[in-house]
Design brief:
Blueprint (H helix, E strand, L loop, with lengths): L1 E6 L4 H11 L7 E3 L2 E8 L2 E8 L4 E5 L3 H8 L5 E4 L1 E2 L2 E2 L4 H11 L4 E2 L2 E6 L2 E6 L9 E5 L4 E8 L2 E14 L2 H12 L1
Parallel strand pairs: 3-9, 10-14
Antiparallel strand pairs: 1-5, 1-6, 2-5, 3-4, 7-8, 10-11, 12-13, 13-14
Amino acid sequence: MWYVMQVRVGTEERIAQQCNTRIPESILKRNFIPYSEAKFKFHGEWTTLKRRIFLGYVFLDTDHIEEVLKYLYKMPDMTKVLGVGNEIVPLTEEEVDFLLQLGGEEQIVRLSKLMLDGTKVTVLNGPLKGKEGLIKKINKHKRRITLETDLFDRLQQIEVGFEFAVERTEHEKKAELTAQSA
């Protein structure tokens, strides 16, 4: 089962490493931080880098959460494990499936190729294919898409990167309309 641990922002990597070294593999299958590939422009060149999707969260895969908690409470930057009220609850099957569809087992959301035609978005390939309905915002300049979905028992916005397959210009659109009407 997957659980979500809240930590101080900026300490995710350190806490994940502490989990690896301090918690026996017999009770913690793995812990991870979901990432998204994103394009950044440095000195005029586009470079692909990884960014954390959920700032302040580390995910735990365990069937022994009570035993794992004993180790977690000894970590100073760990805030809590998410749950409902005082009860710690795992992510639902649907939430786990969604995260696996996006990031796979390695939990890295790869770049999807998009075609933008005015306000119409077509995902040609990548993890966003079939998830067009979740897209709430597109920042073409920064090449980022904001998805909105239910996770952790609330509405979450997830920002992931994309790359253009084709962006049609106004001239190309007019040419196509002229050809269709002829």
